Structure formats: C-alpha cells, structure tokens
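The pair is quoted verbatim below.
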Amino acid sequence: MAAQTQTQIRAHTSSNPPEYQDDLLCSEQQLEDPEQKQESCLGSPVRCLTGESRTERAWAHWIKLGRPKFIVAPMVDNSELPFRMLCRKYGARAAYTPMLHSRIFTETEKYRKEEFTTCKNDRPLFVQFCANDPDILLEAARKVEPYCDYVDINLGCPQRIARRGNYGAFLMDNLPLVKSLVEKLARNLQVPVSCKIRIFPNLEDTIRYARMLEEAGCCLLAVHGRTRDEKDGKKFRADWKAIHAVKNALKIPVLANGNIRHMEDVHDCLEETGVEGVLSAESLLENPALFAGFQTSEWVAESEAGNIDGRLDQADLLVEYLKLCEKYPVPWRMIRSHVHKLLRDWFSLQPHIRDDLNKQSKLTFEFLYDMVDRLRQTGTRIPLYLKDTQIGFAANGYTS
C-alpha cells in the first residue's frame, strides 16, 4: 500500500471518536440473542463496505482490539481453549482456535460442543474454518460469530488430509473458489473475515493472491512464509522478505507466521516484515511462555550470554495446563498431545515414565499429576530461561 494512503487511514481511524469507529465495525454490537444477531446481518447492503470504507473498517477493528502483536497460531487439536488461556497468561494477546471442519461443524452437535469452546476472557479470538463450499462455510460461521472477533478461512494447511478434502493450501489451485468463500462471508457476517495463507513459489503470484483476498473482503491476512510443499519448518526457513512484500502491497493489517522460536525472533520478524503481529505455533507447544520472554535450553545455547534460570519449567506449565483443562474440559486426545510435547525432553531422560504414559488407554488427571511428581522425584528438571534483565518485572504481564 502507498505510505501516504496508510498514514491517512491510520490517522483517520485514530483521530475519530470511538462512536464513529464503532460505525465502521461489523462485530462490536453484541446482541444477547445469537439468532437475532444472525438475522440482523442477512443481506444488509449497508454492511457490505467496499474500497476505502472497507479498509477503514479493517483498521478500526484491529485498533479497537488493541493491535495485538503476539498471537497463538491455529493448530489442529492443539490451540484449544485451555492451551489458549495458558498462552494468554504468558503474554499472548490474541489466539486462533484449532482448524474446524465447516461441514462437520454444521452437521454434528457433538463436534461443535467438543471442538469449539470459549469463555469470557478468551478474546481477541479468531475462529478458523476449512471449507470448499461458500454456503456451508457461511452456515458454520454464523454459529460462532457472536463469540469471536474474526472468522478465519484456512487457506494454508499443506497436509495430505487437506489435499484429500480439497481445502486449505490446496485451494490455491482454484482461486475463483477462494474468492467466493471470502466474498460470501464478507457480505453476510457482522464479524470481519480474516484469511491465513501460504506463499506461492513466485512472489508476484503471492502478491496477486493477497490482493485478490483483500478485494474480496478479507479484513486481515496472516501469511505463512513457506510454500505448500515446504511442510517441514525445521528444514525450510520461512521467507520473511515475501511477507514484507505482501505487507507493502496491501492496505489491510497483515500478520506473519514462521521462524518464531523465541522473543528475539518475534522482534526481528516485526522489524524485517513491518507486519502488525506475529503468530507462533510449534514453538508454543514446547514453550507456552514464549511470549513472556522465556526460552528453552535449545535456543539459549545459540544466543548471547546473560540468560539465567527463569524459575519456571515445562512441568510447571503442564500442571497449569491440566488445571485449566479441569476448568474447561476438552477431549483427552488433546491433553495427551500436549503432555508429550511439553515433556518431550524430560521423557528423553526418563523414558520409563513416558512408557507408563503410553500404556494408559484412558487418562485421568490423578495419573498425570502423579506422573509429574514422579518426574520431579527423579531429580529431572529442565528450566526455561530469561534474560537476566527480565527477572523480577513483567514485560508481558508475567512476574517471576
């Protein structure tokens, strides 16, 4: 986007009173009755904004949410409510739900109740769907729009299941369908529409793709800086230059995803790409306190001196997560997955305790709390680290 235009939009949205900004939004008037809210957005031409009005709407909404910079990325079975709340405690300022299958979500009440849970403090929240049918996607989106700040379309999943189901990154082969998905939501929802994409091998194709999404009604774009074929994040580095180019080409807010292992990466990414915020996925699974400045020993070894024991470890975080799961129940498969990811390095030192976990066909909280105690009794502890300047104060809402 031209620098002058962006400056004008930001000045426009920040200089006008909140009442005016609310007029630009589609999501802020929360009705007590979800059905009433859904009916109010059907075919309302007043809300189908175009051009500069839509850009102003996008920025006004993002500003009203506090312009969150640190965001939990969508992860299948792994960015559920208890984990989101744990990450929020340790510095995350917004979060995505796991990817939800739009057709199953519309058809199956059990799936809706188990896979989508939220609470009052779980905001700002992106609810992400995969889809390949605009009508089904809209039906699913209407069920969640009273409870979120964006309805997000997954256009980036590169896995084999997405190929078989014809969704995610494999819709990059059918851009007219992608456009119709975005337009359907943008014209009929009160909440803004966001999209999460992967890049094309060719930069110009990526920019054309991003501009098409913006023109179709996307109000916020998250860009994963790898192509559809670059599935292994450890083997392929995300292309921050491509994300920077997309950012410069668009008028709406842009987020970056890829190469985020600790807070130094977060700051480097924000500086190099110029985006509004950064998503982290795999690194948060190992270290949900990443956005509070904590680092695992793996990355401390590669960074400068001055890191000290942060008086927090992954077992502490697991106990906090389990308590949140007791408060906000989720399927046990999700809990089991987080236990393995959080305690991977601990289990490598005590494989017999990991084997005992794997033998459990049915988990209980009592077993998991006892497992943590057993690990501690062996003397195993792998601390998370902070810069020595961070101890004792709360840069991101956490005080050690």
Summary: The chain is about 50% helix and 15% strand.
